[in-house]
Amino acid sequence: MGIVQKYGGSSVATMEKIKAVAACVAATRREGHDMVVVASAMGKTTNELIALAKETGGADNARELDALMATGEQTTVSLLAMTLEGMGIPAVSLTGAQCGFLTNANHARAKIVDIKDDVLKARIAEGKVVVVAGFQGIDEHGDITTLGRGGSDTTAVALAAKLGWDCEIYTDVESIFTVDPRKCPGAKRLHRITYDEMMEMASLGAGVLETRCVEIAKKYGVKLYLGKSLEADKTKGTYIMMENNESFESMPITGISLKEDCAMVTVTGAAGDGRCVDDVFALVASLDINVDMISQQMLADGGVALSFSCSLEDAALLQRKYGERGLPYALDVQQPLGKISLVGVGMITHSGIASRAFSVLYQNGIRYYQITTSEISISITVDVANMQNAVNMLARAFGLCDAD
Fold first, then answer.
1. Is-contact 272 302, C-beta < 8 A?
2. Which of 81, 286, 329, 393 is the most buried (most CB within 10 A)?
3. Around Cβ 351, how many Cβ atoms within 10 Å?
4. Do 252 and 341 meet the contact criterion of CB atoms below 8 Å apart?
5. What's this model's pTM, rounded to 2 decimal places?
């Protein structure tokens, strides 16, 4: 079986780092593994390309912007392939299109339709390390497309799924932690985590992996590993897989995800006939706003109070457009808020998790607002000013950080 390895932008930010990555790839190749390597654009290249596009005055041309963005990854893979060749390791670079990534035509957020892997498999059969440009594909019209946020991770996992191989994602973090260690310095490493837990944590704010690539890994049974670039000791990283027998029974909570960019929108003054919900969410949809934590309360007078959370930016946009639409309901926005989400498959078999969380917040004088749950998560919004204290208290209560 072969291995798909993916290296993020910080891992290939300079030629020195590209040479170091090439040395790691060469070492794995010499162990006898077939290899596909997916690479992101070097360092801050993508931001620099966006800045150049803005200078043209035509940066809203989605087709041309995708064509421009794709050059960042193409530069990296060519340099990495040449470096491997210079080390005596046969290698070839492929763009997303050359690798057979067929997508829909949604520029900047394209979805993979199929991977025509004839060229890829032919290069592998020739004994070459195939270095693939992440983040990109081609649509039915022959136009270059990009896969959106986390696109290179998605490229790597999709290739692993197609080939039936394992996937290793290397970045600038050592592993997945129970809590963001920048917010909770005593956070513990997670050596294993389930697909469902990782998807839930990613969707609720954990920025290590995108939900999309984990979803593909789960669907096709790809064994996924995340670790720090150039670190040979894999016991320091995290495996994402179907089951996590080490902690399923002993740790009902696996981790905490955080979002600081939240606002709570409340709409009042409406009848309970559903018209308000229809009107408000029609506007939300037309503005392409993603909402969360939706709740509706029936009032004693027969009216309703509708509330939901969204980003601060989207809340500001909604406020601006709300008056223009002339809706007859009162709109109130409470901000800034943070969302704290407790995640763990152990919630399915453990009771009292919500009670314990609410008790911790109450005993520490931390006011909370919206609450939403799933089978494996509980999310709570709090004032941003109280977020750090809330995270620390909850992490300690559920054994997710080392004692002081």
1. yes
2. 81
3. 9
4. no
5. 0.85
Question: How many alpha carbons fall within 13 Å on the CB side of residue 161?
Answer: 19
CA distance 292 to 285: 13
Distances 241 to 23, 61, 75, 166 between C-alpha atoms, Å: 28, 40, 32, 11
Q: Is 78 a domain residue?
A: yes
Residue 321 lies in a domain: yes
Instruction: Please report, for the domain that includes residue 363, its CATH number.
Output: 3.30.2130.10
Give the per-residue pLDDT at 244.
59
Task: Give the span between the Cα atoms of 209 and 170, in whole angstroms.
Answer: 11
Residue type, 332: D
Query: What is the C-alpha to C-alpha distance for residues 214 and 197, in angstroms, rounded to an integer?
Result: 10
The Cα 99–Cα 96 span in angstroms is 5
Checking if the pLDDT of 91 tops 70, the result is yes
Q: Which helix (H) or strand (E) holds 147?
A: none
Half-sphere exposure at residue 26, Cβ-oriented, CA atoms within 13 angstroms:
17
Provide the domain count of the chain. 2
Query: What's the pLDDT score for residue 227?
Result: 95
Range of the domain at 10: 3-247
Which residues are bridge partners to 73 per DSSP? none
Structure tokens at 385: 């000013």
**pLDDT tens-digit series, residues 310-324:** 999 999 999 999 988
Q: Which two tokens stand for residue 95?
A: 């763009």
